[in-house]
Amino acid sequence: MSRCRVLVVDDSAVVRQLLTEILDQDPDIEVVGSAADPLLAREKIKRLNPDVLTLDVEMPRMDGLAFLEHLMRLRPMPVVMVSSLTERGADITLQALALGAVDFVTKPKLDLANGLTEYAEEITTKVKAAARARVRPAAAAAAPQIVRAEAPRIVAPVATRYRTTDRLIAIGASAGGTEAIRVVLEQMPADAPAIVLTQHIPASFSRPFTERLNKHSAMLVREARDDEMILPGHAYLPPGDHHLRVVRDGARWRCKLDPGPPVNRHRPAVDVLFRSVAQNAGSNAVAAILTGMGDDGARGLLELRQAGAATLVQDEATSVVWGMPGAAARLGAAQEILPLDAIAARLLALARE
């Protein structure tokens, strides 16, 4: 397979040099050029025809978001944003993801050279994943087809098969998930069953992300507080750098925040959430894995299915990166595989059954 051709776009000469050195160390990546602003980048894209663009969120001479919007309309290509760990950086990055950027990495606040070197694995992994990503939004199907998978051989312990008056929906996502989660929550009514979510995102991004989702949903979307009751009509995301677990409190559930070590290299991790839901909600739960890189959540989704929960994953055609949902499907964890636009309605239907 040919090497991934990358164009680095950043107004900082130091960052351009460091990113180029980091990416060039990977044998599967070739940095074909760099540009100090979007106008120079536009000409180099035409001349060098890169596979992936790394793009600073704040750029001179042309607004970075305006450049990205033009790029995705005129020449759609995978873009990885390189953002700062600030409130403004988080907001611009989330807007960039809404415009079609595949993923993002964050610049360290201090000691830029050493900090970026520490992020070398993350940067190279995300660039290579972006090269395989789908950047054109899939056309909505008139009648989405549900793909049903064979049931796993292992059955749930009887102890997990209890019922309460409420149902619980659990969702996990990573690369491409900020927009996928928005699409799902936009379709949820104000009285939908409670939803618990985990999205791989830096600590400083979690509050702007939650606020952005809340603006797009009839549900109340909020950062979870430790030990708070989980209520219908509410969607809960963990605050930055904490796992979210669900614990039982009689016939109801509460949020439990866990600052413990990363799981699958992530904190928050989808597997942590899903396993807690399998143990404490069992067949009262409905769960979905949306677009994302890696395999976090796949084993947790299998445990949910074995505990009697209904499980589904986003299909490959509408996923930005079919890593996490693909891993779950291969593991036999998903009962159904659906396009993104069909997931909210199906989660609600399964919760009513």
UniProtKB/TrEMBL annotation:
Taxonomic superkingdom: Bacteria
Compartments reported by the entry: Cytoplasm
Record bears the keyword Ion transport: no
Catalytically driven reaction(s): L-glutaminyl-[protein] + H2O = L-glutamyl-[protein] + NH4(+); [protein]-L-glutamate 5-O-methyl ester + H2O = L-glutamyl-[protein] + methanol + H(+)
Pfam hit, one: CheB_methylest
UniProt GO MF annotations: protein-glutamate methylesterase activity
InterPro entries reported for this sequence: CheB-like, CheB_C, CheY-like_superfamily, Sig_transdc_resp-reg_Me-estase, Sig_transdc_resp-reg_receiver
Hydrolase among keywords: yes
Every Response regulatory domain range: 5-122
Residue intervals of the CheB-type methylesterase domain: 162-353
EC number: 3.1.1.61, 3.5.1.44
Active site: 174, 200, 296
Residues that bear 4-aspartylphosphate: 56
UniProt keyword list: Chemotaxis, Cytoplasm, Hydrolase, Phosphoprotein
Post-translational modification: Phosphorylated by CheA. Phosphorylation of the N-terminal regulatory domain activates the methylesterase activity.
Free-text comment about domains: Contains a C-terminal catalytic domain, and an N-terminal region which modulates catalytic activity.
Function text: Involved in chemotaxis. Part of a chemotaxis signal transduction system that modulates chemotaxis in response to various stimuli. Catalyzes the demethylation of specific methylglutamate residues introduced into the chemoreceptors (methyl-accepting chemotaxis proteins or MCP) by CheR. Also mediates the irreversible deamidation of specific glutamine residues to glutamic acid.
Family assignment from sequence similarity: Belongs to the CheB family.
Name of protein: Protein-glutamate methylesterase/protein-glutamine glutaminase
Originating gene: cheB
